[in-house]
Amino acid sequence: MVKSRVEEELIALQARGNNHREVLEDSYNAETLHHIAVMEWNADTEVIITDQKKNIIISSSKLDKEEKEILSKKIEPVPRNGKILENRWKSEKYISTVSPYTVNGQQKGYVFMFKSTDQVQSLISRLSHHFLVAAVITVTLLILTILFLTKSITTPLIRMKKATEKLSRGDFSVHLTDMGEDELGELSRSITILARDLKHLKEERSEFLSSISHELRTPLTYIKGYADVARQKNIEDKDRERYLDIIYEESEKLSDMIKDLFNLAKIDQNTFIIHREKVQLCSYLRGICEKMMPAFKEKGMKLEIDCSENIYVMIDPMRFKQVFLNLFDNAIKYSDPYTKINIFVKREKGDVLIEIRDEGHGIPREDLSFIFERFYRVDKSRSRDFGGTGLGLSIVKELVEAHQGRIEVKSEVGKGSTFLIWIEEMTE
């Protein structure tokens, strides 16, 4: 920028000399020469007009040694627009230019322009001072910006680092304050959500293990107790058979529970393979209903299905059959005799909605959000009496979601429950 500024000064000096040349060429006389000298008298530049041999005709000020040395330099040839004689503003006293002028078509002499380098250096000094001030301001703002960024970015990151260290030690009591809507805020919320989910998983795992130990202990206690009684030699055969029947019944419950746990374990480990195929939903459902009909008739219950004939879905028939069997079995257990179960199938926004509606006992509102959790029972004693494991609805939910579907339940105590399943319809 300094170099550019000096070049601007030299160009301006040369232009001023060319202007004086134009005036001389228009009217070359003593009055014009005097007028040019007077013009430069109070300016920050000096002018010297010479003849062809560089003899001074007029000067705006008295020449000093440095100006005489510049005049003595060889200047031939000089182009019409002039040229720069001296541009060493750092080491010399003057910068200088020369412009030739002509009278009556012939070159008459030269117009020399001088400008003190003190003025140029003063200008450069002011320019440097401005840049120094700008640099100080810039550095100050940069330091303030770094401090601000350190506080607004580094401090939250340190807090989040400490939070993740707590999570790694198994301490899930982590809560980070809201840090805004930017990426840091999203990361903070994600860590808080992760901590909450991990805490929930830890509690769920503890509850799950406790439930398993309790559910396994109950039938094993029955089996062991009645087996000890049945081994006694002084009991009647009729009582022995009754005890053996109880042992067999509890063994069946235990086998069902282990089977359900095995299925859930495979789903959790993503080893539960789904073999999808194109299925005509209505005929598929009617086939399942026919197999379940004896169980409904045994309790005097009706099973009705309302379904169109042209709905196709991509499902695993064996896996999805387990969904309906579990839901039907659930409806039979928790409904009174001579009630009715309805199945409705319809299209809804590109999906197929399957409603299974019973007239059973219903589910309390406070239990609805937990109904699909493992080992959760609304009425534990009733469920055990009927042989339930508390895993059936968990398996139903996992199987539906494995088919990229979703399941919900609506219920009212004393009025029954409705299970709603959405799965994607297969288009032709």
UniProtKB/TrEMBL annotation:
Residues 211-427 form the Histidine kinase domain. PANTHER family: SENSOR HISTIDINE KINASE CPXA. The chain crosses the membrane at residues 131-150. It is an enzyme of class 2 (transferase). It holds the Pfam family HATPase_c. The lineage of its organism: Bacteria, Bacillati, Bacillota, Bacilli, Bacillales. This is histidine kinase. It catalyses: ATP + protein L-histidine = ADP + protein N-phospho-L-histidine.
